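INFO  loader      accepted 1 record
INFO  loader      residues=203
INFO  predictor   begin
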Amino acid sequence: MSSEQIIFYILSFWFIATSLAMIFARNAAKAVLFLVLGFFSAASIWILLEAEFLAITLILVYVGAVMVLFLFVIKMLNIDKSTIRAKFAEYLPLGLIVALIIIAEMFLVLGSAQFGLEVMPSPARHGADYSNITVLAMQLYTTYVYPFELAAVILLIAIIAAITLVHKKETTHKKQNVSEQVNVRAKDRVRLVSIVSPTKEEK
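INFO  predictor   done
INFO  writer      dumping tokens
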């Protein structure tokens, strides 16, 4: 076994361990930190596969921006844990069904028929003039252009949905109508009422 294979197995074990720690973490902030460690392991594996651009993109975009944003949002949100625990049993059967479906799909897709040692050849070594960015761009914008555009549309829908969920109408806020205030007249706003005071006999 070569040193590259040993490093690959170590990084893969670390990636699986941090992923399981993220799933079973009770604190949301700790789960985000475990996910960051998992991203570093995935980026290291990509570097072993000579995909330096993907590794740097993963660290800069996800670890440097998205995960930091998640961490700040989690710390700012006032999460009611009692409500989450009360609804856990309600959504548990549906969650188990979805998890079993995902596991079955992973076994079908990642089986030995598609990713076995007989099917997947060893990665070839490239020269110094090889650019994985050029190869990635050619594959992304030629072979996989329609899935790429579909992913962009799905991302746009997710952004719109997130804005819609966050942007709620506040019924407690009172808004001012400036034009109505400017055009107001005294006779429309003030009404003088003459009230006759009761006499002693009426009292």
